[in-house]
Amino acid sequence: MTEKTDPRHTVVVGCLVRNADNEVLLIRHRQRGWEIPQGRVEEGENLVDAARREVAEEAGVEVEIGPLAAVWSMVAPTSALIFAFLGRYLGGELNPTDDSEAATWVPESEALAMVTSPVMRERLAVLLNHDGGVSYRSYSLKPYQLHLEHDLLSWPQG
To answer: Which InterPro entries match (predicted)?
Structure first.
């Protein structure tokens, strides 16, 4: 008989930050390349504080966290829930830390071309095209495969 264990999920937050010129903030991760600031939620930390902290740690700037725009559920090879917010730049100079190699502001029209990871590119595209709802997607990796896609406000009844 196998021992039953509680499900374990990693909780991650990300934030698409825009400045006054409507440019978006991208950071360069050592392995994944360019992406939005994101990272794991620490024990005892709420999602909004975690998003604010991750942007500060990866880009060195202060942001106001706005609406939740998307939720992703990674189901394989491990389980993770990713909550992505929209944010507004408040202040500070871009200053990448140990968590990122570089940080830059880029026009929206150039941002997608910089992101080479399929998962991160899709994440950025969803956030750039945010229409006021909350998008939900379930996916797996190796290879990247999207399993389910819905707007949480218009979830089908059935």
So the answer is: Nudix_hydrolase, NUDIX_hydrolase-like_dom_sf, NUDIX_hydrolase_CS, NUDIX_hydrolase_dom
* pLDDT band, very low/low/confident/very high, at 21 (cuts 50, 70, 90): very high
Q: Measured between alpha carbons, how far is residue 41 from residues 37, 38, 57, 147, 158 in Å?
A: 13, 9, 13, 24, 33
The domain that contains 139 carries what CATH number? Answer: 3.90.79.10
Query: Considering its fold, how many domains does the chain have in total?
Result: 1
pLDDT over 90, % of the chain = 66
How far is 158 from 155, CA to CA, in rounded Å?
A: 9
Query: Are residues 15 and 100 in contact, defined by beta-carbon separation less than 8 angstroms?
Result: no
What is the phi-psi region of residue 60: left when phi exceeds 0, alpha when psi lies from -120 to 50, beta otherwise?
left
Distance of CA 133 to the CA centre of its chain: 16
pLDDT for 6: 65
